[in-house]
Amino acid sequence: MLRLSFSLPIETADNDGLKNHAQKLLGLNERDIISLSPFKRSLDARKGRPFLYVWTVDITLTDIKKEKLIFNERKNQIPNLEYIEKELLYSFPLTSFEIKTRPVIAGFGPAGIFCALMLARAGAYPIILERGGSVNERVMAVDTFFKDKKLDENCNIQFGEGGAGTFSDGKLNTLVKDKNYRGYFVLQEFVRAGAPDDILYINKPHIGTDRLREVVKNIRKEIISLGGEVLFNTRLTDIIIKNGSLTGVFYESNGKQSEIKTDTLFLGTGHSARDIFTILNNKSVPLERKPFSVGVRIEHLQSEIDKTQYRNYAGSPYLPSSDYKLVYHTKNGRTLYSFCMCPGGIVIAAASENGGIVTNGMSYHARDGINANSALLVTVQPQDLPDDSLFAGVELQKQLEKKAFLFGDGDFKAPCQCVGDFLQGKATTTFGIVKPSYPCGVLGSDLNKLLPGFITETLRDGLISMDTLLKGFADPEAVLTAPESRSTSPIRIIRGEDMQSSIKGLFPIGEGAGYAGGIMSAAIDGIKAAECYCENI
To answer: 182 pLDDT exceeds 80?
Structure first.
Protein backbone atom coordinates (compact mmCIF):
# COMPACT_ATOMS: atom_id res chain seq x y z
CA MET A 1 0.00 0.00 0.00
CA LEU A 2 1.14 3.53 -0.78
CA ARG A 3 0.41 6.42 1.58
CA LEU A 4 0.54 9.83 -0.02
CA SER A 5 0.04 13.34 1.40
CA PHE A 6 -0.85 16.47 -0.58
CA SER A 7 -2.76 19.75 -0.30
CA LEU A 8 -5.81 20.73 -2.31
CA PRO A 9 -8.30 23.63 -2.28
CA ILE A 10 -11.01 23.08 0.33
CA GLU A 11 -13.70 22.57 -2.31
CA THR A 12 -11.88 19.48 -3.64
CA ALA A 13 -13.30 17.05 -1.13
CA ASP A 14 -14.64 14.08 -3.09
CA ASN A 15 -12.88 10.82 -3.82
CA ASP A 16 -12.74 11.48 -7.56
CA GLY A 17 -10.81 14.70 -6.96
CA LEU A 18 -8.40 12.97 -4.61
CA LYS A 19 -7.93 10.08 -6.99
CA ASN A 20 -7.25 12.32 -9.99
CA HIS A 21 -4.64 14.29 -8.04
CA ALA A 22 -2.94 11.14 -6.76
CA GLN A 23 -2.81 9.71 -10.28
CA LYS A 24 -1.05 12.84 -11.59
CA LEU A 25 1.47 12.88 -8.76
CA LEU A 26 2.34 9.21 -9.19
CA GLY A 27 2.10 9.09 -12.97
CA LEU A 28 -0.65 6.47 -12.93
CA ASN A 29 -3.77 5.75 -14.94
CA GLU A 30 -7.21 5.23 -13.40
CA ARG A 31 -7.05 1.49 -14.10
CA ASP A 32 -3.81 1.24 -12.06
CA ILE A 33 -5.60 2.08 -8.79
CA ILE A 34 -7.88 -0.53 -7.27
CA SER A 35 -8.76 1.56 -4.21
CA LEU A 36 -8.07 4.95 -2.64
CA SER A 37 -9.29 5.94 0.80
CA PRO A 38 -8.62 8.98 2.99
CA PHE A 39 -6.39 8.31 6.00
CA LYS A 40 -6.23 11.82 7.43
CA ARG A 41 -7.49 15.32 6.63
CA SER A 42 -6.53 18.56 8.35
CA LEU A 43 -7.10 22.23 7.54
CA ASP A 44 -4.25 24.54 6.58
CA ALA A 45 -5.64 27.98 7.48
CA ARG A 46 -2.45 30.00 7.71
CA LYS A 47 -2.80 33.72 7.13
CA GLY A 48 -1.82 35.22 3.81
CA ARG A 49 -2.60 32.17 1.69
CA PRO A 50 -5.68 30.30 0.41
CA PHE A 51 -7.27 27.75 2.75
CA LEU A 52 -6.27 24.20 1.88
CA TYR A 53 -7.12 20.73 3.10
CA VAL A 54 -4.04 18.60 3.70
CA TRP A 55 -5.01 15.07 2.69
CA THR A 56 -3.25 11.80 3.39
CA VAL A 57 -4.63 8.92 1.33
CA ASP A 58 -3.98 5.20 1.19
CA ILE A 59 -3.67 3.73 -2.29
CA THR A 60 -3.78 0.10 -3.33
CA LEU A 61 -2.71 -0.69 -6.88
CA THR A 62 -4.13 -3.36 -9.14
CA ASP A 63 -0.63 -4.76 -9.40
CA ILE A 64 0.53 -4.91 -5.77
CA LYS A 65 4.13 -5.69 -6.81
CA LYS A 66 4.20 -2.32 -8.58
CA GLU A 67 3.67 -0.40 -5.33
CA LYS A 68 7.22 -0.80 -4.02
CA LEU A 69 8.64 -0.10 -7.48
CA ILE A 70 6.76 3.21 -7.73
CA PHE A 71 7.82 4.14 -4.19
CA ASN A 72 11.49 3.61 -5.02
CA GLU A 73 11.15 5.59 -8.25
CA ARG A 74 9.23 8.52 -6.76
CA LYS A 75 10.32 8.85 -3.10
CA ASN A 76 13.00 11.45 -3.85
CA GLN A 77 10.61 13.56 -5.95
CA ILE A 78 7.62 13.16 -3.62
CA PRO A 79 8.79 13.48 0.01
CA ASN A 80 5.32 12.79 1.39
CA LEU A 81 5.14 9.29 -0.08
CA GLU A 82 5.35 6.14 2.04
CA TYR A 83 5.35 2.46 1.24
CA ILE A 84 3.51 0.39 3.83
CA GLU A 85 4.06 -3.32 3.45
CA LYS A 86 1.67 -4.26 6.23
CA GLU A 87 -0.71 -1.87 7.92
CA LEU A 88 -0.49 -2.06 11.70
CA LEU A 89 -3.90 -2.54 13.27
CA TYR A 90 -5.13 -3.45 16.72
CA SER A 91 -5.88 -7.07 17.51
CA PHE A 92 -7.54 -8.10 20.75
CA PRO A 93 -5.57 -10.91 22.44
CA LEU A 94 -8.33 -13.50 22.32
CA THR A 95 -7.54 -16.54 24.39
CA SER A 96 -9.23 -19.86 24.92
CA PHE A 97 -10.38 -20.14 28.51
CA GLU A 98 -13.14 -21.31 30.76
CA ILE A 99 -14.64 -18.77 33.14
CA LYS A 100 -15.56 -19.78 36.68
CA THR A 101 -18.10 -16.98 37.02
CA ARG A 102 -19.39 -14.46 34.51
CA PRO A 103 -17.65 -11.07 34.84
CA VAL A 104 -19.83 -8.14 35.84
CA ILE A 105 -19.50 -4.62 34.44
CA ALA A 106 -21.08 -1.75 36.37
CA GLY A 107 -21.73 1.23 34.10
CA PHE A 108 -22.47 1.25 30.39
CA GLY A 109 -20.53 4.35 29.35
CA PRO A 110 -17.60 4.23 26.91
CA ALA A 111 -15.33 2.26 29.26
CA GLY A 112 -18.04 -0.26 30.13
CA ILE A 113 -19.27 -0.58 26.56
CA PHE A 114 -15.89 -1.41 25.05
CA CYS A 115 -14.89 -3.62 27.95
CA ALA A 116 -18.16 -5.53 27.48
CA LEU A 117 -17.71 -5.74 23.71
CA MET A 118 -14.22 -7.23 24.04
CA LEU A 119 -15.30 -9.69 26.74
CA ALA A 120 -18.34 -10.75 24.72
CA ARG A 121 -16.19 -11.41 21.65
CA ALA A 122 -13.82 -13.41 23.83
CA GLY A 123 -16.68 -15.64 24.99
CA ALA A 124 -16.82 -14.38 28.59
CA TYR A 125 -20.58 -13.61 28.55
CA PRO A 126 -20.42 -10.38 30.62
CA ILE A 127 -23.31 -9.11 32.72
CA ILE A 128 -23.70 -5.31 32.54
CA LEU A 129 -25.46 -3.36 35.29
CA GLU A 130 -26.57 0.15 34.26
CA ARG A 131 -28.41 2.29 36.78
CA GLY A 132 -29.97 4.38 34.03
CA GLY A 133 -32.21 3.40 31.16
CA SER A 134 -31.67 2.52 27.52
CA VAL A 135 -31.00 5.35 25.08
CA ASN A 136 -34.69 5.62 24.21
CA GLU A 137 -35.64 5.75 27.88
CA ARG A 138 -32.97 8.37 28.53
CA VAL A 139 -34.19 10.61 25.72
CA MET A 140 -37.69 10.55 27.19
CA ALA A 141 -36.41 11.21 30.72
CA VAL A 142 -34.19 14.10 29.60
CA ASP A 143 -36.96 15.66 27.50
CA THR A 144 -39.29 15.47 30.51
CA PHE A 145 -36.65 17.09 32.71
CA PHE A 146 -36.05 19.95 30.28
CA LYS A 147 -39.77 20.54 29.84
CA ASP A 148 -41.29 19.89 33.26
CA LYS A 149 -38.23 20.22 35.57
CA LYS A 150 -38.83 16.69 36.86
CA LEU A 151 -35.48 15.00 37.36
CA ASP A 152 -35.06 11.23 37.43
CA GLU A 153 -31.96 10.79 39.60
CA ASN A 154 -31.09 7.43 38.01
CA CYS A 155 -31.88 8.15 34.35
CA ASN A 156 -30.63 11.51 33.08
CA ILE A 157 -27.77 13.25 31.28
CA GLN A 158 -25.21 11.53 33.53
CA PHE A 159 -26.66 8.02 33.86
CA GLY A 160 -27.87 5.56 31.26
CA GLU A 161 -26.79 3.80 28.10
CA GLY A 162 -23.70 5.40 26.62
CA GLY A 163 -22.87 7.38 29.75
CA ALA A 164 -22.61 11.15 29.91
CA GLY A 165 -21.01 11.17 26.45
CA THR A 166 -24.30 10.17 24.81
CA PHE A 167 -25.62 13.69 25.45
CA SER A 168 -22.54 15.59 24.34
CA ASP A 169 -20.75 16.67 21.20
CA GLY A 170 -19.33 13.19 20.78
CA LYS A 171 -15.76 14.39 20.26
CA LEU A 172 -13.36 11.56 19.52
CA ASN A 173 -9.95 13.18 19.78
CA THR A 174 -7.66 12.03 22.56
CA LEU A 175 -4.20 12.79 23.95
CA VAL A 176 -3.66 9.11 24.82
CA LYS A 177 -0.46 7.77 23.24
CA ASP A 178 -1.34 4.22 22.26
CA LYS A 179 1.23 2.23 20.34
CA ASN A 180 -1.21 -0.66 20.01
CA TYR A 181 -3.64 1.33 17.82
CA ARG A 182 -6.57 0.85 20.17
CA GLY A 183 -7.77 4.38 19.41
CA TYR A 184 -8.13 3.74 15.70
CA PHE A 185 -9.82 0.43 16.53
CA VAL A 186 -12.41 2.31 18.62
CA LEU A 187 -13.10 4.62 15.68
CA GLN A 188 -13.50 1.62 13.37
CA GLU A 189 -15.98 0.04 15.77
CA PHE A 190 -17.99 3.25 15.89
CA VAL A 191 -18.16 3.25 12.08
CA ARG A 192 -19.22 -0.42 12.06
CA ALA A 193 -22.01 0.55 14.44
CA GLY A 194 -23.29 3.40 12.26
CA ALA A 195 -21.05 6.42 12.81
CA PRO A 196 -20.04 8.44 9.73
CA ASP A 197 -16.85 7.07 8.18
CA ASP A 198 -15.19 10.50 8.08
CA ILE A 199 -14.32 10.06 11.80
CA LEU A 200 -11.56 7.75 10.57
CA TYR A 201 -9.64 10.57 8.91
CA ILE A 202 -10.74 14.09 9.87
CA ASN A 203 -8.38 15.85 12.24
CA LYS A 204 -10.90 16.47 15.03
CA PRO A 205 -13.52 13.74 14.65
CA HIS A 206 -16.91 13.92 16.31
CA ILE A 207 -20.17 12.00 16.01
CA GLY A 208 -22.78 14.25 17.59
CA THR A 209 -25.39 13.22 20.13
CA ASP A 210 -27.99 12.32 17.48
CA ARG A 211 -25.72 9.81 15.72
CA LEU A 212 -24.06 8.57 18.90
CA ARG A 213 -27.38 7.37 20.31
CA GLU A 214 -27.80 4.93 17.42
CA VAL A 215 -24.17 3.82 17.60
CA VAL A 216 -24.34 2.73 21.25
CA LYS A 217 -27.59 0.85 20.62
CA ASN A 218 -25.98 -1.11 17.80
CA ILE A 219 -22.94 -2.01 19.90
CA ARG A 220 -25.27 -3.16 22.67
CA LYS A 221 -27.07 -5.43 20.20
CA GLU A 222 -23.78 -7.11 19.26
CA ILE A 223 -22.86 -7.65 22.91
CA ILE A 224 -26.23 -9.33 23.52
CA SER A 225 -25.95 -11.42 20.35
CA LEU A 226 -22.67 -12.84 21.71
CA GLY A 227 -24.21 -13.89 25.01
CA GLY A 228 -23.73 -10.70 27.01
CA GLU A 229 -26.54 -9.41 29.20
CA VAL A 230 -27.43 -5.74 29.72
CA LEU A 231 -29.61 -4.92 32.72
CA PHE A 232 -30.93 -1.36 32.57
CA ASN A 233 -32.42 0.54 35.52
CA THR A 234 -30.22 -1.65 37.70
CA ARG A 235 -28.01 0.01 40.31
CA LEU A 236 -24.95 -1.52 41.95
CA THR A 237 -25.54 -1.27 45.71
CA ASP A 238 -22.67 -3.22 47.30
CA ILE A 239 -19.69 -5.46 46.66
CA ILE A 240 -18.76 -8.63 48.53
CA ILE A 241 -15.11 -9.11 49.50
CA LYS A 242 -13.62 -12.18 51.16
CA ASN A 243 -9.93 -12.60 51.98
CA GLY A 244 -8.99 -9.66 49.77
CA SER A 245 -10.85 -10.94 46.71
CA LEU A 246 -14.14 -9.98 45.12
CA THR A 247 -16.73 -12.75 45.44
CA GLY A 248 -19.96 -11.05 44.42
CA VAL A 249 -22.05 -7.92 43.99
CA PHE A 250 -25.48 -6.74 45.12
CA TYR A 251 -27.74 -4.73 42.86
CA GLU A 252 -31.17 -3.16 42.99
CA SER A 253 -33.80 -3.30 40.24
CA ASN A 254 -37.46 -2.34 40.56
CA GLY A 255 -36.99 -1.96 44.29
CA LYS A 256 -35.69 -5.51 44.72
CA GLN A 257 -32.21 -6.41 45.99
CA SER A 258 -30.40 -9.29 44.27
CA GLU A 259 -26.95 -10.86 44.32
CA ILE A 260 -24.61 -12.04 41.58
CA LYS A 261 -21.76 -14.34 42.56
CA THR A 262 -18.72 -13.29 40.55
CA ASP A 263 -14.98 -13.02 40.94
CA THR A 264 -14.67 -10.03 38.60
CA LEU A 265 -16.19 -6.54 38.61
CA PHE A 266 -15.26 -3.86 36.11
CA LEU A 267 -16.27 -0.61 37.78
CA GLY A 268 -17.06 2.02 35.13
CA THR A 269 -19.85 3.92 36.84
CA GLY A 270 -18.61 7.46 36.11
CA HIS A 271 -17.69 10.20 38.54
CA SER A 272 -21.28 11.35 39.07
CA ALA A 273 -22.06 8.06 40.83
CA ARG A 274 -20.94 9.49 44.16
CA ASP A 275 -22.59 6.70 46.11
CA ILE A 276 -20.09 4.26 44.59
CA PHE A 277 -17.19 6.15 46.21
CA THR A 278 -18.95 5.79 49.56
CA ILE A 279 -19.49 2.05 49.05
CA LEU A 280 -15.82 1.55 48.19
CA ASN A 281 -14.61 3.67 51.10
CA ASN A 282 -16.79 1.68 53.52
CA LYS A 283 -15.18 -1.50 52.18
CA SER A 284 -11.67 -0.04 52.68
CA VAL A 285 -10.95 -0.05 48.93
CA PRO A 286 -7.99 2.35 48.47
CA LEU A 287 -9.06 5.78 47.18
CA GLU A 288 -7.21 9.07 46.88
CA ARG A 289 -7.96 12.71 46.22
CA LYS A 290 -6.89 14.16 42.89
CA PRO A 291 -7.01 17.53 41.14
CA PHE A 292 -10.27 18.31 39.37
CA SER A 293 -11.80 21.30 37.62
CA VAL A 294 -14.64 23.74 38.20
CA GLY A 295 -15.86 26.63 36.09
CA VAL A 296 -18.56 27.84 33.73
CA ARG A 297 -19.89 27.42 30.21
CA ILE A 298 -19.25 30.33 27.86
CA GLU A 299 -21.42 31.00 24.79
CA HIS A 300 -20.77 33.11 21.69
CA LEU A 301 -22.50 33.35 18.34
CA GLN A 302 -21.04 30.57 16.19
CA SER A 303 -20.96 32.97 13.25
CA GLU A 304 -18.62 35.28 15.19
CA ILE A 305 -16.27 32.42 16.06
CA ASP A 306 -16.28 31.43 12.38
CA LYS A 307 -15.40 34.99 11.32
CA THR A 308 -12.49 35.10 13.72
CA GLN A 309 -11.16 31.66 12.84
CA TYR A 310 -11.91 31.53 9.12
CA ARG A 311 -11.70 35.23 8.20
CA ASN A 312 -12.78 35.70 4.55
CA TYR A 313 -13.69 32.01 4.29
CA ALA A 314 -16.36 32.23 7.01
CA GLY A 315 -19.62 30.79 5.76
CA SER A 316 -17.97 28.48 3.22
CA PRO A 317 -20.00 25.28 2.72
CA TYR A 318 -16.70 23.40 2.49
CA LEU A 319 -15.70 24.23 6.06
CA PRO A 320 -17.12 22.81 9.30
CA SER A 321 -18.30 25.04 12.13
CA SER A 322 -15.07 26.30 13.66
CA ASP A 323 -13.81 25.44 17.10
CA TYR A 324 -11.08 26.64 19.44
CA LYS A 325 -8.86 25.43 22.25
CA LEU A 326 -7.45 28.02 24.63
CA VAL A 327 -5.21 27.88 27.70
CA TYR A 328 -4.11 30.69 30.01
CA HIS A 329 -1.56 30.45 32.83
CA THR A 330 -1.76 33.12 35.53
CA LYS A 331 1.26 34.61 37.26
CA ASN A 332 0.29 32.90 40.51
CA GLY A 333 0.35 29.45 38.90
CA ARG A 334 -3.36 29.00 38.16
CA THR A 335 -4.56 27.68 34.80
CA LEU A 336 -7.75 28.50 32.91
CA TYR A 337 -8.54 26.32 29.92
CA SER A 338 -11.36 25.67 27.48
CA PHE A 339 -12.73 22.16 27.42
CA CYS A 340 -15.35 20.20 25.47
CA MET A 341 -15.93 23.00 22.96
CA CYS A 342 -19.25 22.42 21.16
CA PRO A 343 -19.52 24.26 17.82
CA GLY A 344 -23.13 25.05 16.96
CA GLY A 345 -24.29 23.41 20.18
CA ILE A 346 -26.24 24.17 23.34
CA VAL A 347 -25.55 24.32 27.06
CA ILE A 348 -27.50 21.54 28.74
CA ALA A 349 -28.91 20.86 32.19
CA ALA A 350 -26.79 17.92 33.38
CA ALA A 351 -27.92 17.51 36.98
CA SER A 352 -28.19 14.03 38.45
CA GLU A 353 -29.29 15.05 41.95
CA ASN A 354 -32.36 17.05 42.92
CA GLY A 355 -31.52 20.42 44.42
CA GLY A 356 -28.41 20.97 42.30
CA ILE A 357 -27.46 22.68 39.03
CA VAL A 358 -24.88 21.18 36.67
CA THR A 359 -24.07 22.39 33.15
CA ASN A 360 -22.46 20.66 30.19
CA GLY A 361 -22.30 21.09 26.43
CA MET A 362 -24.00 19.16 23.63
CA SER A 363 -24.25 19.38 19.86
CA TYR A 364 -25.72 17.38 17.01
CA HIS A 365 -23.72 15.93 14.16
CA ALA A 366 -24.48 18.89 11.88
CA ARG A 367 -23.26 21.41 14.48
CA ASP A 368 -25.63 23.93 12.95
CA GLY A 369 -26.92 25.69 16.08
CA ILE A 370 -26.74 29.47 16.54
CA ASN A 371 -24.34 29.44 19.49
CA ALA A 372 -20.93 27.98 20.17
CA ASN A 373 -20.19 26.94 23.74
CA SER A 374 -17.29 25.64 25.74
CA ALA A 375 -16.39 24.93 29.33
CA LEU A 376 -13.98 27.41 30.92
CA LEU A 377 -12.34 25.53 33.75
CA VAL A 378 -9.98 26.24 36.61
CA THR A 379 -8.01 23.39 38.16
CA VAL A 380 -8.79 22.79 41.82
CA GLN A 381 -5.81 21.40 43.71
CA PRO A 382 -6.14 19.44 46.98
CA GLN A 383 -4.65 22.42 48.85
CA ASP A 384 -7.57 24.57 47.64
CA LEU A 385 -10.01 22.46 49.64
CA PRO A 386 -11.11 23.40 53.16
CA ASP A 387 -9.87 20.18 54.80
CA ASP A 388 -7.92 16.99 54.17
CA SER A 389 -10.89 14.63 54.06
CA LEU A 390 -11.22 12.21 51.16
CA PHE A 391 -14.56 13.66 50.08
CA ALA A 392 -13.64 17.35 50.35
CA GLY A 393 -13.64 17.73 46.55
CA VAL A 394 -17.01 16.03 46.19
CA GLU A 395 -18.39 18.30 48.92
CA LEU A 396 -17.13 21.40 47.08
CA GLN A 397 -18.91 20.22 43.93
CA LYS A 398 -22.12 19.61 45.88
CA GLN A 399 -21.96 23.00 47.61
CA LEU A 400 -21.55 24.84 44.30
CA GLU A 401 -24.37 22.88 42.66
CA LYS A 402 -26.74 23.49 45.57
CA LYS A 403 -25.81 27.18 45.78
CA ALA A 404 -26.43 27.56 42.04
CA PHE A 405 -29.83 25.89 42.48
CA LEU A 406 -30.78 28.51 45.06
CA PHE A 407 -29.44 31.30 42.83
CA GLY A 408 -31.84 30.06 40.16
CA ASP A 409 -34.88 30.27 42.43
CA GLY A 410 -34.88 26.53 43.15
CA ASP A 411 -36.45 25.59 39.82
CA PHE A 412 -33.41 24.27 37.91
CA LYS A 413 -32.90 27.66 36.30
CA ALA A 414 -29.18 28.23 35.98
CA PRO A 415 -27.38 31.40 37.13
CA CYS A 416 -26.16 33.24 34.04
CA GLN A 417 -24.19 36.43 33.44
CA CYS A 418 -22.94 38.45 30.49
CA VAL A 419 -19.14 38.57 30.24
CA GLY A 420 -19.17 42.38 30.41
CA ASP A 421 -21.19 42.34 33.62
CA PHE A 422 -18.97 39.62 35.09
CA LEU A 423 -15.84 41.68 34.46
CA GLN A 424 -17.50 44.72 36.05
CA GLY A 425 -18.79 42.74 39.01
CA LYS A 426 -22.47 43.47 38.56
CA ALA A 427 -25.47 41.20 38.14
CA THR A 428 -26.91 40.74 34.65
CA THR A 429 -30.46 42.00 34.16
CA THR A 430 -30.82 41.71 30.38
CA PHE A 431 -29.08 39.66 27.70
CA GLY A 432 -27.87 41.02 24.38
CA ILE A 433 -27.30 39.37 21.02
CA VAL A 434 -26.12 36.07 22.56
CA LYS A 435 -29.14 34.32 24.05
CA PRO A 436 -28.45 31.61 26.66
CA SER A 437 -29.32 28.16 25.30
CA TYR A 438 -29.65 26.34 28.66
CA PRO A 439 -32.99 24.50 28.25
CA CYS A 440 -34.40 24.88 31.78
CA GLY A 441 -34.15 28.66 31.69
CA VAL A 442 -31.64 31.03 33.26
CA LEU A 443 -31.70 33.81 35.82
CA GLY A 444 -29.47 36.86 35.48
CA SER A 445 -26.95 36.70 38.32
CA ASP A 446 -23.53 37.76 39.54
CA LEU A 447 -21.31 34.69 39.32
CA ASN A 448 -18.70 36.47 41.44
CA LYS A 449 -21.00 35.71 44.37
CA LEU A 450 -21.45 32.05 43.41
CA LEU A 451 -17.98 30.75 42.61
CA PRO A 452 -14.95 30.70 44.93
CA GLY A 453 -12.68 33.74 44.69
CA PHE A 454 -9.71 31.92 43.20
CA ILE A 455 -11.94 30.70 40.36
CA THR A 456 -13.53 34.08 39.56
CA GLU A 457 -10.14 35.80 39.74
CA THR A 458 -8.66 33.32 37.28
CA LEU A 459 -11.71 33.66 35.02
CA ARG A 460 -11.39 37.46 34.93
CA ASP A 461 -7.69 37.42 34.09
CA GLY A 462 -8.10 34.55 31.63
CA LEU A 463 -11.02 36.04 29.70
CA ILE A 464 -9.08 39.23 29.02
CA SER A 465 -5.95 37.33 27.99
CA MET A 466 -7.83 34.82 25.85
CA ASP A 467 -9.39 37.72 23.98
CA THR A 468 -5.93 38.56 22.65
CA LEU A 469 -5.68 35.00 21.30
CA LEU A 470 -9.21 34.80 19.90
CA LYS A 471 -10.63 38.21 19.08
CA GLY A 472 -14.09 38.72 20.57
CA PHE A 473 -13.72 35.97 23.16
CA ALA A 474 -14.36 38.48 25.96
CA ASP A 475 -17.23 40.13 24.07
CA PRO A 476 -19.39 41.87 26.70
CA GLU A 477 -22.51 40.16 25.32
CA ALA A 478 -21.07 36.62 25.46
CA VAL A 479 -22.72 34.73 28.31
CA LEU A 480 -21.47 32.58 31.19
CA THR A 481 -23.68 29.85 32.68
CA ALA A 482 -22.68 28.07 35.88
CA PRO A 483 -21.54 25.78 37.26
CA GLU A 484 -19.56 23.35 35.12
CA SER A 485 -18.66 21.04 37.99
CA ARG A 486 -18.56 17.49 36.62
CA SER A 487 -15.83 17.63 33.99
CA THR A 488 -13.40 15.54 36.04
CA SER A 489 -13.44 13.33 39.10
CA PRO A 490 -12.12 14.63 42.44
CA ILE A 491 -11.36 11.04 43.52
CA ARG A 492 -9.25 8.28 42.03
CA ILE A 493 -9.74 4.58 42.75
CA ILE A 494 -6.18 3.32 43.13
CA ARG A 495 -5.21 0.41 40.89
CA GLY A 496 -2.02 -1.43 39.93
CA GLU A 497 -0.35 -2.19 36.62
CA ASP A 498 -2.71 -5.12 36.20
CA MET A 499 -5.56 -2.55 36.34
CA GLN A 500 -6.93 -4.15 39.50
CA SER A 501 -7.51 -2.52 42.84
CA SER A 502 -5.79 -4.05 45.86
CA ILE A 503 -8.99 -6.09 45.94
CA LYS A 504 -8.39 -8.96 43.53
CA GLY A 505 -10.97 -9.02 40.76
CA LEU A 506 -11.96 -5.34 41.11
CA PHE A 507 -11.06 -3.37 37.96
CA PRO A 508 -11.71 0.41 38.29
CA ILE A 509 -12.02 1.84 34.75
CA GLY A 510 -12.84 5.05 32.91
CA GLU A 511 -13.45 8.62 34.00
CA GLY A 512 -15.15 7.81 37.28
CA ALA A 513 -12.16 5.78 38.42
CA GLY A 514 -9.88 8.70 37.57
CA TYR A 515 -8.12 7.17 34.55
CA ALA A 516 -9.73 8.84 31.53
CA GLY A 517 -10.93 12.20 30.30
CA GLY A 518 -13.32 11.70 27.40
CA ILE A 519 -15.04 9.15 25.19
CA MET A 520 -11.90 7.85 23.50
CA SER A 521 -9.62 7.57 26.53
CA ALA A 522 -12.41 5.89 28.51
CA ALA A 523 -13.08 3.39 25.69
CA ILE A 524 -9.37 2.59 25.45
CA ASP A 525 -9.21 2.11 29.21
CA GLY A 526 -12.09 -0.38 29.04
CA ILE A 527 -10.32 -2.34 26.29
CA LYS A 528 -7.09 -2.48 28.30
CA ALA A 529 -8.95 -3.82 31.33
CA ALA A 530 -10.57 -6.54 29.20
CA GLU A 531 -7.12 -7.46 27.90
CA CYS A 532 -5.76 -7.79 31.45
CA TYR A 533 -8.68 -10.00 32.39
CA CYS A 534 -8.31 -12.31 29.39
CA GLU A 535 -4.54 -12.58 29.71
CA ASN A 536 -4.66 -13.53 33.39
CA ILE A 537 -7.79 -15.67 33.61
So the answer is: yes
Residue, of 178 and 36, whose pLDDT is higher: 36
Q: In 10 A of CB 189, how many CB atoms?
A: 21
Q: Are residues 359 and 242 in the same domain?
A: no
Collapse the DSSP code of 292 into the 3-class scheme (helix H, G, I; strand E, B; otherwise coil) and give the result: strand
Quick: pLDDT tens for 303-317: 999 999 999 999 999
Domain containing residue 412: 291-484
Write down the pLDDT at residue 175.
Answer: 63
The three state secondary structure string of 217-261 is: HHHHHHHHHCCCEEECCEEEEEEEEECCEEEEEEEEECCEEEEEE
Assess whether 132 and 278 both reside in one domain. Answer: yes
Q: Between 98 and 247, where is the model more confident? A: 247
Question: Does 96 map to a domain?
Answer: no
Query: How many domains are contained in the chain?
Result: 3
Length of the chain: 537
DSSP β-ladder status, 335-342 and 327-329? antiparallel
Q: What is the 3-state secondary structure (H, E, C) of 255-284?
A: CEEEEEECCCEEECCCCCCHHHHHHHHHCC
Cα(183)–Cα(181) distance, integer angstroms: 5
Q: Is residue 220 part of a domain?
A: yes
Q: Are residues 284 and 247 in the same domain?
A: yes
| Omega of the bond leading into 483 within 30 degrees of 0 (cis) | yes
Please list the residues that pair with 223 across neighbouring strands: none
Q: Indicate whether 209 and 260 sit together in one domain.
A: yes
What is the C-alpha to C-alpha distance for residues 515 and 298, in angstroms, rounded to an integer?
A: 27
Calpha distance 131→129 (Å, rounded): 7
- 27-50 pLDDT, tens digit per residue, is 998 889 999 999 999 999 998 889
Q: Is the pTM above the cut of 0.85?
A: yes
* pLDDT value of residue 176: 67
Residues 467, 321 share a domain = yes
On whether both 275 and 300 belong to a single domain, the answer is no
Are residue 463 and residue 423 in the same domain, yes or no?
Answer: yes
Q: List residues bridging with 245 in a β-sheet.
A: 242, 504
Listed range (50-59, 71-80, 186-195, 280-289) with the worst mean pLDDT: 71-80
**At 339, is the secondary structure helix, strand, or coil?**
strand
Give the CATH number for residue 13.
3.30.70.2700
Say which CATH number the domain at 185 has.
3.50.50.60
DSSP run (H or E) holding 493: strand 491-493
Q: What percent of the chain has pLDDT over 70?
A: 99
Residue 153 inside a domain? The answer is yes
